[in-house]
Design a protein that fits this description.
Blueprint (H helix, E strand, L loop, with lengths): L24 H15 L9 H30 L3 E5 L3 E4 L2 H8 L2 H10 L4 H6 L4 E3 L3 H15 L4 E6 L7 E5 L2 E5 L12 E2 L5 E3 L4 E6 L5 E6 L4 E11 L6 E11 L1 H9 L3 H12 L16 H26 L6 H4 E6 L5 H13 L4 H11 E4 L10 E3 H7 L1 H21 L4 H7 L2 E2 L5 E3 H8 L2 E4 L2 H9 L3 H6 L4 E3 L6 H7 L2 H11 L20 H26 L8 E6 L8 H16 L9 E6 L7 H18 L8 E6 L4 H7 L5 E4 L11 H7 L3 E4 L5 H8 L5 E2 L4 H9 L3 H7 L1 H11 L12 H8 L7 H20 L1 H13 L6 H13 L18 H7 L12
Parallel strand pairs: 1-4, 1-13, 4-12, 13-14, 14-18, 18-19, 20-21, 20-23, 21-22, 23-24, 24-25
Antiparallel strand pairs: 2-3, 5-6, 7-11, 8-11, 9-10, 11-12, 15-17, 16-17
Helix pairs in contact: 1-2, 1-4, 2-3, 3-19, 6-33, 7-8, 9-11, 11-12, 11-14, 13-14, 21-32, 22-23, 22-29, 22-31, 28-29
The structure holds ligand CJW.
Length: about 850
């Protein structure tokens, strides 16, 4: 930056050295009052909880700041190797509660607020979700950051600061309406703008050869239209360990010159248009979670993130190490969250060659040792491809580099399989055809030293299917890293009743070592413990019932079984199968088949991509079925159905603690992992599910007797699909036949003729890739088993406790240790010495800090 605003002055420690802020209720209350009255200018007449939230956010933020600084210093001083997580999405949700929990001051803050006549829970509710992601992939990134900070790993997240996050979903007569989520309309207390680290990102123009001073032929990217990337840093606190890591989010801003250039040329509207064009890049999150739609703005976003982040890391490197780039790969590692940021492979090559003067071979070695790629999907429509033509227009220099990478790579393929032209065509980074495309997954694989899937089955299927050729060439690159979730948010914070009960029995160690939950196993049949467990579940069900009443106007009775499916709406996730089962239950009630009935409350929620017509139709069907079922006096309390609008992180914090039965019913081989399944399990829900994604590992951990399994396996799915005859399945199953009759009769769309025709057709289609009809019978059987099991509350509670007790594997603390052991190879760095108080350390980290051999993170080779 050349602005005078950022002129450097001499270092001035007395500016920032201050005694640590106190964390006791008296001081917290004092600071709260200061912010409320003096900073926000509110007084006793202000009844808006929002300002109380803001004041508390400021109090907490101050405490984060000092730890954040010491963490930065600790990383700098230790000159440690670092990893960077590159992701187009971070679903952070709310920050206040999480920060308070991780600072270890839940009781202190509650007391301080109590003294002021306020309640922490109510304040926390006033915070808007930071919804900078679509679903599992974005939430996973947020859980990863939490675990890295807790493990004191020097990992920084890089992402985009979208002005508009994930759209808000409203329902109008059962139809999804999308509303903009202008989350930055309110002040965001959880970010710090750092214009002093602004980067410049190039677009457009052309590449041109030239000779440098030594006469070497080089390339440069000229006549570009640049965009500035301004970083906003978000603090990511570890759990009671003094560490605060950073998530750096980039905002796009027009450059002064190119504004002025057009302005001076007398084209004022042109200059404004150019400014808008630049700033559009970070305006909105694309609301697709499984199919790319080839919009050029999306490619701009991807490159913007990759380029700004890489330049940022390079700049820091140069400042400290000079132009000693030979050790860059030793000290830096980039984890690519799916192919979305995979431009980074070519961009790093460009920076190393064009800007740092490396040779191709040096640069390639550095890149290949630095990049690691995680795949999150097997769906072919989600595999990103960009038209070569678009690359040429937007990123011409990158396209040159991709061509060169591909040429050299295909030579390697030809050497390994001489004469196998078909294989070369299959493996080429450039897909030939009328509209040639860049296959981003192949670019990511070729440019990375590690390629991982996100659950055992998914990683296997990648190796045997989608990436088979690459696996044959480089088996050593491929590995699995089963997903997880952070138990800090997904148990300790969101289910405080269960947390307290668990901690009373086994201590608090599980908060940083989830495997300790296995100590609950011997208590699974303990009558007293069961009673307490049931009491907590009951309270959580009341809380969930209140949410459903407020949001859906449907009364859920807490004695009924709460049967929940919340996730993005997609055909492969089979919300349709769920609602067919609901119709079947309704049909049974109507025909009087209700002996030994288990009352059930079915809750479904999730957003459909705005352009995904079938997914929206499925929402409409769910809503219409709910309307009929809930208003039929013959049904009464036997069955209730609700679709909860605007499903998001903060809603899940109420939903998963109150759930009895977790629906994980995707067509086998389609859900890469799933992470909602883990949140439910941790909170003591039982799973009804297929052998798909991480369900398989959940069932392995908890035992088949504590899991309701149904459906075809991934292998069987392939076989059945070959000559699939849904009508055969429908005619062979009386229950399904009746369900289809009800649907076809228009029973759920009495005044809306034919609106469900496309759904009915899809079920009857021999080309239905999701095999809804094929799995119906076994799904109904598993549901019946679950219903019967629920009637034995003693048995059910036992299974519930065992599920929670067996969820240890599904902590992102474990996932991050796996990434670190096999991919990142970082040493944890403690930032403790500088902060006030005596934070409690998890045992493992205590050993590390106290100089014990760093077993947990030692290289195994
Ligand atoms: O990642 C989770 C998995 C889950 C998987 C999800 C995923 O479906 O099973 O638990 C964490 O590993 N999300 C995506 N792929 N896989 C995903 C997300 C956003 C996308 C996209 C794919 C956005 C676009 C395209 C594909 C786009 O162009 O906007």
């Amino acid at each position: 930056m050349n602005s005078t605003r950022f002129k450097k002055s001499r270092p001035c420690p007395e500016l920032t050295e201050a005694p640590p802020l106190q964390m006791d209720p008296v001081n917290l209350a004092k600071d709260f009052r200061h912010y409320y009255a003096h900073h926000l200018g509110r007084d006793k007449h202000c009844r808006l909880t929002h300002y109380a939230y803001e004041a508390m956010a400021l109090v907490v933020r101050d405490r984060l700041m000092e730890r954040w600084k010491s963490t930065r210093y600790a990383y700098e001083e230790s000159d440690c190797r670092r990893a960077y997580y590159l992701s187009l999405e971070y679903l952070m949700g709310r920050s206040l509660g999480n920060s308070i929990l991780n600072l270890g001051v839940v009781d202190e803050v509650s007391k301080a607020l109590y003294g002021l006549g306020l309640e922490l829970e109510e304040l926390a509710e006033a915070e808007q979700d930071a919804g900078l992601g679509n679903g599992g992939l974005g939430r996973l990134a947020a859980c990863f950051l939490d675990s890295c900070a807790t493990l004191q790993l020097p990992v920084q997240g890089y992402g985009i600061r979208y002005e508009y996050g994930m759209f808000r979903q409203r329902l109008d007569n059962g139809y999804q309406i999308e509303e903009p989520d202008h989350w930055l309309g309110a002040v965001n207390r959880w970010e710090v703008e750092r214009p002093e680290y602004t980067q410049r990102v190039k677009f457009g123009g052309r590449s041109e050869p030239y000779r440098d001073h030594s006469g070497t032929l080089r390339w440069r990217w000229v006549e570009t239209r640049d965009v500035l990337a301004i970083p906003y840093d978000v603090p990511v606190p570890g759990h009671q360990n003094g560490t605060v890591n950073t998530l750096r989010l980039w905002k796009a801003v027009a450059t002064a010159e190119f504004d002025l250039g057009e302005f001076n040329a007398g084209d004022y509207p042109g200059s404004v248009a150019a400014k808008n064009e630049a700033e559009k890049i970070t305006m909105v999150l694309y609301p697709n979670d499984s199919s790319e739609n080839g919009k050029d703005l999306r490619l701009r976003q991807q490159y913007f993130l990759a380029s700004a982040s890489l330049q940022d890391v390079m700049e820091k490197w140069s400042k400290i190490q000079g132009n000693q780039l030979s050790r860059f790969a030793e000290k830096n590692c980039f984890q690519l969250n799916d192919t979305h940021p995979s431009c980074a492979v070519a961009e790093l090559m460009r920076l190393l060659i064009d800007e740092q003067g490396m040779t191709w071979d040096q640069a390639w070695e550095t890149t290949q040792k630095t990049m690691a790629y995680t795949n999150h999907t097997l769906l072919p429509e989600a595999l990103e491809k960009w038209p070569v033509r678009l690359f040429e227009q937007l990123l011409p220099r990158l396209l040159d580099i991709i061509y060169e990478i591909n040429a050299r790579f295909l030579k390697q393929v030809a050497q390994r399989w001489p004469g196998d032209l078909e294989r070369q065509r299959r493996m080429s980074i450039i897909e030939e055809g009328p509209e040639p495309q860049v296959r981003m997954a192949y670019l990511a694989i070729v440019g990375s030293f590690s390629v991982n899937g996100v659950a055992e089955l998914h990683s296997q299927l990648l190796q045997q299917g989608l990436f088979k050729d690459f696996y044959e060439l480089w088996p050593e690159k491929f590995n699995n890293k089963t997903n997880g979730v952070t138990q800090r948010r997904w148990l300790a914070w969101c289910n405080q009743g269960l947390s307290e009960l668990i901690s009373e029995r086994i201590g608090e160690g599980w908060v940083t070592e989830l495997e300790q939950l296995s100590q609950l196993k011997p208590l699974a049949e303990d009558a007293e413990f069961q009673g307490q467990w049931q009491h907590v579940k009951h309270q959580n069900k009341l809380r969930l019932a209140e949410l459903v009443r407020a949001e859906c106007g449907v009364a859920f009775a807490p004695e009924a079984m709460f049967d929940v499916q919340v996730k993005r709406i997609h055909e492969y996730k089979r919300q349709l199968l769920n609602i067919l089962h609901v119709i079947h239950l309704y049909d049974r009630i109507k025909r009087g088949d209700t002996a030994n009935w288990t009352p059930r409350c079915v809750l479904i929620g999730g957003k459909a991509a705005p352009g995904y017509a079938m997914a929206k139709q499925i929402i409409k069907l769910i809503c219409n079925v709910a309307e009929v079922v809930n208003n039929d006096p013959a049904v009464g309390d036997l069955l209730k159905v609700a679709f909860i609008p605007n499903y998001r992180v903060s809603a899940m914090e109420v939903i998963c603690p109150g759930t009895d039965l977790s629906e994980q019913i995707s067509t086998a081989g389609k859900e890469a992992s799933g992470t909602g399944n883990m949140k439910f399990m941790m909170n003591g829900a039982l799973t009804i599910g297929t052998l798909d994604g991480a369900n398989i590992e959940i069932r392995e951990e908890v035992g088949s007797e504590n899991f309701f399994l149904f459906g075809l396996t991934a292998t069987e799915v392939e076989v059945v699909r070959r000559d699939y005859n849904p009508a055969g399945f429908i005619n062979a199953d009386e229950n399904l036949y009746r369900v289809m009759q009800l649907l076809r009769s228009g029973h759920f769309n009495q005044c809306e003729a034919n609106i469900f025709d496309s759904i009915i057709q899809a079920i009857y289609s021999p080309h239905d890739p999701w095999l809804v009809a094929a799995d119906f019978s076994s799904y109904v059987a598993a549901q019946q088993q679950a219903a019967r099991a629920y009637q034995d509350q003693h048995g059910w509670t036992k299974m519930s406790i065992l599920n929670s007790a067996a969820s240890g594997k599904f902590s992102t603390d474990r996932t991050m240790q796996d990434y670190n052991r096999d991919i990142w190879r970082l040493e944890p760095v403690s930032a403790m010495q500088v902060t006030g108080g005596a934070p409690r350390l998890p045992r493992r980290i205590e050993e590390l800090v106290n100089g014990e051999p760093q077993k947990a993170f030692a290289r195994t080779d």
